[in-house]
Design a protein that fits this description.
The chain is an alpha+beta fold. Helix content is 37%, strand content 20%. It has four helices and four strands, in the order αβββαβαα. β2 and β3 form a beta hairpin. The longest helix is centred in the middle third of the chain and has 16 residues. The model has no long low-confidence stretch (mean pLDDT 88).
């Protein structure tokens, strides 16, 4: 598996920042962030195993985090770990970050 940042680089995207804190003094972090265009990518694990993102409290906390992110002018891409592995997440990022004429 190629690391997500290297997948982005291979597609001609800017390299995202890992674990970016976006709402100090909150401790919220984004899995990946392109800071200047305000685009975030969150990896939603535990989809089939009742992980943190799919259980009640974790789900509600994610809603608060994502709504705060939106209120601050960010766009959010949500993906699964499998979409990181198969490269689909980087393709979604390209659809958001690149002008239409530059997309592969």
């Amino acid at each position: 598996m190629i690391a997500f940042d290297r997948q982005c680089q291979a597609l001609g995207l800017p390299v995202p920042v890992a674990e970016y804190r976006f709402a100090a003094p909150r401790r919220w972090r984004l899995d990946w962030a392109w800071v200047e265009p305000r685009v975030a990518l969150e990896v939603e694990g535990g989809v089939w195993t009742r992980g943190r993102h799919t259980r009640g409290v974790g789900f509600l906390k994610d809603i608060e985090k994502y709504n705060t992110l939106a209120a601050m002018g960010w766009r959010l891409i949500r993906v699964t770990p499998a979409q990181i592995t198969n490269g689909e997440a980087a393709v979604w990022a390209a659809k958001v970050l690149l002008p239409l004429e530059q997309r592969a």
